[in-house]
Design brief:
10-stranded mixed β-sheet, mainly beta, 17 strands
């Protein structure tokens, strides 16, 4: 999941996988028309951006949280993001996992110093390199960031809106289960890779604009004080400042980058030895 500049003027169709069964320990209602193994196909204009579907993330009740420095993600304004369903079967239960940390400029500098590594330009490749991930601002410009050690650190600004952009460079589909501050972007509950997520089509672009509030809308992602974050006002602020993506490939033989690399590097004359007795 390398970070890329901008949101394209035209988004490819994406979709949201949604299983009927609720994961153990999770609560909340499902969309009445969700079916096991189905996904939700999404098509959103560039001006709207977000995709998703499924259970509705409730607007957080007001409650106090301990004061912490830096940024979290607040519950933003309503953004249009319509959805529909399409089938998707995962190839396996173990996803690729990618993570991006975010904070204000002072917090990112402190985090890099804590890791004892000098910052360098951001580049995040997901899985086998088939996918790339970007964190962009409201106008589609890449947010500044650094790589320090094995951490990717992105600089945000208090009050600014942001989007998560995933680009697929492979001729196959993937499922993306995304979280912000430890919360699933679809239902606002503590995130779990076993839940269903967004689909991204071959050579497509997925833009995740906020926490889903209905089949038609999301609450935009906006940087804000930790005490005002959606997490702090619901489940707690322990995991603020991190964006996670669990990536699943689709079941069946597919032309992934790994498979294409194997084809490209196939040896027509492998080393020859002597014949051995049969076993």
């Amino acid at each position: 999941m390398s970070l890329l500049l901008g949101v394209p003027a035209r988004h490819a169709t994406t979709s949201l996988a949604f299983a009927l069964a609720v994961a153990a320990g999770c609560s909340g209602s499902l969309s009445p028309y969700a079916r096991s193994g189905d996904t939700i196909a999404t098509s959103t204009p560039a001006s709207a951006g977000g995709y998703g579907g499924g259970a509705i993330a409730a607007e957080p009740p007001a409650q106090r949280a301990p004061e912490r420095p830096g940024l979290g993600t607040a519950w933003g304004e309503q953004v249009s993001a319509p959805i529909s369903y399409t089938p998707f079967t995962r190839a396996g239960d173990a996803p690729w996992a990618e993570m991006v940390h975010y904070n204000d400029a002072q917090g990112v500098a402190a985090h890099a110093d804590y890791l004892g590594a000098p910052p360098s330009p951001v580049r995040v490749d997901a899985g086998d390199g088939s996918l790339t991930v970007s964190i962009v601002d409201e106008s589609g410009q890449l947010l500044p960031g650094y790589v320090a050690g094995d951490r990717t650190l992105v600089v945000g600004e208090d009050g600014a809106r942001y989007r998560i952009v995933v680009r697929n460079q492979a001729p196959v589909r993937f499922e993306i289960v995304a979280s912000v501050d430890g919360l699933d972007v679809i239902d606002g509950k503590p995130a779990d890779p076993s839940r269903r997520g967004y689909l991204i089509d071959p050579y497509g672009v997925l833009v995740i604009d906020g926490f889903r509030t209905s089949d038609a809308n999301v609450a935009a992602f906006r940087f804000g004080a930790v005490a005002q974050s959606y997490a702090a006002k619901t489940t707690g602020d322990r995991d603020v400042g991190v964006i996670g993506l669990a990536i699943f490939s689709e079941r069946g033989a597919v032309w992934s980058r790994a498979e294409l690399q194997r084809r490209d590097t196939a040896n027509p004359f492998p080393a020859r030895g002597y014949a051995t007795p049969p076993r």
